[in-house]
Amino acid sequence: MNPNNRNGLSRLFYNPTARSLFFQALILGLLLYFVMTIVGNVMTNLHQRGISTGFGFLSQPAGFGISQTLIEYNETFSFGRTFFVGLLNTLLVSFLGVIAATFLGVIIGISRISPNWMLRKISMVYVEILRNIPLLLQIFFWYYVVLQTLPRPRDSLSFGESIFINIRGVFLPKPVPDAGFSFYVALLVASVVAVVALTIWAKRRMRDTGQQFPVFWTSIAILLGTAVIGFFITGRPMVLDYPELRGLNFRGGITILPELIALWFALTIYTSTYIGEIVRSGIESVSHGQTEACRALGINEGQRMKLVILPQAMRVMIPPMTSQYLNLTKNSSLATAIGYPDLVSVFAGTTLNQTGQAIEIISMTMMVYLTISILVSMFMNWFNRRVALVER
Amino acid sequence: MTQETGNIITLKNVNKWYGEFHVLKDINLDVKMGEKIVICGPSGSGKSTMIRCINHLEEHQEGDIIVDGVILNNDLKNIGKIRKEVGMVFQHFNLFPHLTVLQNCTLAPIWVKKMPQKEAEKIAMKFLERVKIPDQANKFPGQLSGGQQQRVAIARSLCMNPRVMLFDEPTSALDPEMIKEVLDVMVELAGEGMTMLCVTHEMGFAKKVADRVIFMDAGQIIEENEPESFFNNPQSERTKLFLSQVLGH
Q1: ipTM, two decimals
Q2: What gap in Å lies between CA A181 and CA A353, rounded to an integer?
Q3: Closest chain A residue to B82 measured between Cα atoms?
Q4: Which end of chain A is least crowded, N or C, by CB within 10 Å?
Q5: Does B83 contact A208 at a Cβ distance shorter than 8 Å?
Q6: What are the pLDDT digits (tens) for A361-391?
């Protein structure tokens, strides 16, 4: 049969556009049917059990305490407040984890390719062991094995009678603002401005005269100097609230929960092994010819890293680094296992148990992780574009 | 010492091994100021290794290498000094892909010689004009042809104002029509009195500019002579065989 002589329906069937439209419509229809069935089922079930839907529960009083709150909170606050308390606790441990894991990971990654045999082997063993032990087990290790061996509050390890470490956590003196505090803050801000100005000046001077200036160390001196000298000039605008042993535990000061420490250590160490491998592969992805060109030009090893190798390695490192940061944030929900009051433990745990509003609470919690992930991805994509597109 | 003899590079009984493999065997070589030397030989004969020892990209195990009066040993300061005097051009260009052509040329003068950026840029433009690509200054290496990239690499080396230039097969990775533009730049450079050591298979270039041609095989210098005698009257059988293969077609 001549293919040009097909009847109308057959011609439509073999037309790629019509065909793809048909299948897309089919899939959409199936999806809609599936969602509507589920929603219908859920509504019927909820109705039968007498559970009311909606977000009204968020304004009801919570009636339970939380062991670590970054914002003001007690039992009389609402369930809605527990959401924010949990969210901030999640953000706290994720933030601390990302910073520490990056720092540790870069050191591990560079050690892995160090010319020093010992350093290379130690970091290799570190990576191979710690990334192959499940994270939950590592959290348990820090929490039950390491931190449980600390003494009771009465026999606390004491550092200068102001920092105490015991089985209940780490107790630090807390700075409380006093008269003249705002002036002190203004001084600190001024020192930061001075450092920025110094950096710009040093760059300009280098461009014009070729003179290099030790910006990093000078900046540190300026910041520390202002912080210390300014403190005394402004008449000591802070008093320290020392932790004190009262009865069975310490009161006052800042308390860092052992749950936070265990979770932070485990997340940091586990993620640092992956970041270490990313850093190593990033540096190794830059061809050896680049190193030879630097050497032939007399560029020293530090400058080679800073000016040639790292800017190129960054392009390879950023995408996998992003997923490690996101993994760390999501993994922080393992907090539930040791009772660190993160979002999952507080909101999707206690609050859910108390209210029974599973659909609302779980979807809110999922939305939080989704939002964090999308924000981090967006930022890292922007950053990636900045370093990656330089080539062309 | 070197000033008296007029030698800028001296290799004395240099030996090098890669594990068990003896790559350089008792190499002796004196290079006078302003001399142009072409080194040829079959692949694996150690010619690249020899010139890479001169700026310590490879380490030799025995013998002395003296560059401009500085003895090359494990002293980092000496290595740094020698590398400032010796420029190098590689087979695969090794330009910095994340920097523009101009930035490629100014990086070392700014960070190693502590030169003001404006001055470094002025010098870079001067050399980019000499290699005939000043109009590409703000492009990235990935946007240039192979021949252009190699000319940038030459300009980048010259910006450090070296007293000696090493060329490690500078045209081997280039398409035939681009070889000429690179060789032209090298011939011009030779005409200006630069001391040059070139590992190359371009025999035409050797005949044109070399003061001396060195033939290496199996880690040894087999023969060295002025180009005319080298090509017309080779002494060793090995050289004759090599030349018949290289010039035969």
Answers
A1: 0.90
A2: 44
A3: A298
A4: N
A5: no
A6: 999 999 999 998 899 888 888 888 877 655 5
Closest chain A CA to residue B143: A392
Residue B220 lies in a domain: yes
Q: Which amino acid is at A26?
A: L
B220-226's contacts with Cβ under 8 Å and 24+ in sequence apart are B220/B25, B220/B26, B220/B27, B220/B46, B221/B27, B221/B28, B221/B29, B222/B41
**H-run or E-run covering B49:** helix B47-54
Give the closest residue to A105 by CA, choosing from A372, A284, A317: A317
Q: Which residues of chain B are within 8 Å of residue A212 when distances are taken between CB atoms?
A: 114
DSSP string, A326-355: HHHHHHGGGGGGGT---HHHIIIIIIHHHH
> Could you tell me if residue B2 is inside a domain?
no
Number of domains in chain B: 1
**Residues of chain A positioned with their CB less than 8 A from the CB of B94:** 287, 289-290, 292-293
* CB pair distance less than 8 Å for A210 and B119: yes
Closest partner CB to A298 (pick from B80, B118, B119)? B80
Separation in Å, CA of B139 to nearest CA in chain A: 8
Q: Which of A208, A294, A297, A389 to mutate to test the interface with B (most CBs of B within 10 A)?
A: A297
B56 and A390 within 8 Å at the Cβ level: the answer is no
Residue B1 lies in a domain: no
Kindly report the pTM of this predicted structure: 0.75
For residue B121, being part of any structural domain is answered with: yes
- The two tokens of residue A173 are 């003196």
| A371-376: long-range pairs with CB below 8 Å, 24+ | A372/A91, A372/A94, A372/A326, A372/A329, A373/A326, A373/A329, A373/A330, A376/A322, A376/A325, A376/A326, A376/A329
Q: Give contacts of A308 with chain B, Cβ < 8 Å.
A: 96, 98, 107
Using CB atoms within 10 A of its CB, is residue A170 exposed (0-12), middle (13-18) or buried (19+)?
buried
Which domain CATH number covers B100?
3.40.50.300
For residue A251, what are the β-bridge partners?
A244
In which domain, by residue range, is B162 found?
7-200+208-247
Contact A298 B160 (CB under 8 A): yes
Whole-angstrom CA distances from B75 to A93, B62, B163 are: 48, 15, 21
Nearest CB to B110: which of A210, A298, A391? Answer: A210
The pLDDT averaged over each successive group of 10 residues in chain B (249 residues) is 66 91 91 92 90 91 89 84 91 92 94 89 93 91 91 94 93 89 91 92 89 91 90 88 79
